[in-house]
Hints:
The structure is a homodimer.
Chain A: H1 5-8, H2 17-20, H3 25-33, E1 36-40, E2 45-47, E3 55-69, E4 75-82, E5 85-87, H4 89-94, E6 101-114, H5 115-124, H6 126-152, H7 155-170, H8 185-192, H9 196-208, E7 212-215, E8 218-221, H10 224-233
Antiparallel strand pairs in A: 1-6, 2-6, 3-4, 3-5, 3-6, 7-8
Helix pairs in contact in A: 5-6, 7-8, 7-10, 8-9
The first copy, chain A, binds a DNA duplex (30 and 30 nucleotides) through α9.
Amino acid sequence: MGTKKGTLREPTIKDIPQLFNVLTPEEQKYLLTNHTTLRYRKNQIIYQEGERPTGLLCIGSGKVKIYKEGMMGRDQIVRMASGPGFIGYRALFAHETHIASAVVFEPCVIFHVARDVIMKLMKSNNDLCMNIIQSFATELGFARFRTVSLTQKHIRGRLAESLLVLRDIYGYEADGHTLGIYLSREDLANFSNMTASNAIRTLTTFVKEKALTVDGRIIRILDEQKLERISRLG
Amino acid sequence: MGTKKGTLREPTIKDIPQLFNVLTPEEQKYLLTNHTTLRYRKNQIIYQEGERPTGLLCIGSGKVKIYKEGMMGRDQIVRMASGPGFIGYRALFAHETHIASAVVFEPCVIFHVARDVIMKLMKSNNDLCMNIIQSFATELGFARFRTVSLTQKHIRGRLAESLLVLRDIYGYEADGHTLGIYLSREDLANFSNMTASNAIRTLTTFVKEKALTVDGRIIRILDEQKLERISRLG
DNA sequence: CTATAACTATGTTTTAAAACATACAAAGTT
DNA sequence: AACTTTGTATGTTTTAAAACATAGTTATAG
């Protein structure tokens, strides 16, 4: 659950099991000499809406925010990602431009596997295809689930659910209560389909109801059951 | 564009190009003897939320509504499908239960390819994998796009967009104006994230604005430009 | 062929959430 | 240190959409 892993040693592409572990020794060798390692710092843009993907991107470590620009400059965060996993692969495989932007939230090590290289590997290795299919299936399921929540739940329910989703993705810090991601109120709002004002207000009421405590961007969840109840009924 | 195709002759699994055309003659033979053809009539349930998928389903002909149950029995139509294409494959490849239900909207011929059969074909045929990946990529893109629309656009914009999406999927009848799908006001509402009352009301205003005419479930689009404008700005 | 249910239509009321308006605190710059 | 920017907090107003109410209309079943 912790987020320390990346601080111990820099990850390599071997740390992306859904990519590396299914390859034959031969293919592994090929991949090792045919990828690049990119390092990003906070707020750097990995790719932007409208750009053409050049290959498969794999998060080795770090945290990434993926968002779409909505009406009147109101962003919608469609996904918060962390390693190990793929980003930007939808556009790659749909042969389209990116429909969302990816920006670094916490320093990242990212591996870039050029289109031809990943295609060649996929041609020779079915398990890799199946893993990519699995990623798609999971992500599409999550997208469906969230669409219903974001369109039908009320503000309290949306925010409570978002906090629980963030817990599922990033877990807690060592104390077992502090959310492992430190979003601004605005990002939290953009992840929960509401305005920043309402995110702030609603967080405040959650604090009053003793479901959590807040200290700047540090959110400590005190009562998961209560949040789950709010998420379900709100 | 037309919807007549199915009435001329009953489709076979050969009419699912993304499945059949990429197979070797050998594999085609195997598939031909290892699938079942299912016929459904209006309102029949193909699968339901919570059920476990048993194989890949391909729409040969007909129209299918795929929806998720939301809060307080309010359904959300996540997709309107027609042949040739896959349905229910997300759950199959995610190894999960269905997260949405599929119900027949217009009489369907559907091909069922058992899990083991499709898996075997995918193991031996990469182009098939790539086609399935392509389906996922397209559908995920659509889901993302719709999430932003359904959460951020106002009622008029959502309804206008939904009508244009339905046009893209089902096209027009021979007259070049009549939408090729006849949804109830409630279905239209469930596809546009609004209540039936608001779908009715908003349709009425579109008629007054001469963007379309309505006769029961028959919708004739008169001014696509106007709808596009409403979709963009609303 | 009536009865019952499902669908469509429209007016009225209520409510949730956005928009707007300040204000204060923290962080970063010059 | 003074200044600017950015993020957080709260109160007030406005508005979009839901909820509610009622009624006509069309299907469908007994």
